[in-house]
Every structure is written in structure tokens, then in C-alpha cells.
Write a structure and sequence with these properties.
mainly alpha
């Protein structure tokens, strides 16, 4: 039980570390509320949705690695990380 709580706490802290990527106050509030309600998967999806919006700046490699790690840790298998990686690659001028 303690191990599960420690893993949950580590996941929550990793998500909070990504909070600075959210510049829109309303979306930041939704992200914070999701974390406060222990809805970690919703918070991660909210972050990914925001980062995948048209006009959103590409994220750096460290943030992408953290988002990828969170997906694996939480057992989420979706296309978010691949889409973020593609956006970052295109932004660098390496169209794939």
C-alpha cells in the first residue's frame, strides 16, 4: 500500500513539474483542479490536449521525455506522445 502511495505521489509531483507549460489561466486552473481531485490521468490528458492545439509552441525534449514517462507509468497507450514528438520534429525543420 505504501509503495502505491509513493508511486501516486511521484506521479503527481511529475505532473506538477509540467505545470509551467500551461500559460492559459483557465486551462491551468482545470489542470490544478484535476490534480487536487487526484484525477492524474485527466490532468495529463488536459496537458497533452493543450500542447497539441494549433499554434501551441513545441515542447522541449525534457518535457516530452517526462510526458512519455508519465504515459508509461500510468499505463496510458494513446497517440499523444507520438503527436508531440512529430510537432517538435517539424518545428526543428525536420519534416517527417
Amino acid at each position: 500500500m505504501l509503495q502505491k502511495h509513493q508511486q501516486w505521489k511521484k506521479t503527481q509531483e511529475a505532473l506538477r513539474a509540467l505545470r509551467p507549460l500551461i500559460s492559459e489561466p483557465a486551462r491551468a486552473q482545470y489542470f490544478d483542479e484535476s490534480l487536487d481531485a487526484n484525477e492524474l490521468e485527466i490532468a495529463l490528458h488536459a496537458l497533452c490536449d493543450l500542447m497539441l492545439r494549433d499554434g501551441a509552441p513545441p515542447i522541449d525534449g525534457a518535457a516530452l521525455a517526462q510526458i512519455d514517462s508519465l504515459h508509461h507509468l500510468m499505463g496510458i497507450n494513446d497517440s499523444c506522445v507520438n503527436k508531440l514528438r512529430l510537432n517538435a520534429t517539424r518545428a526543428k525543420g525536420h519534416d517527417v
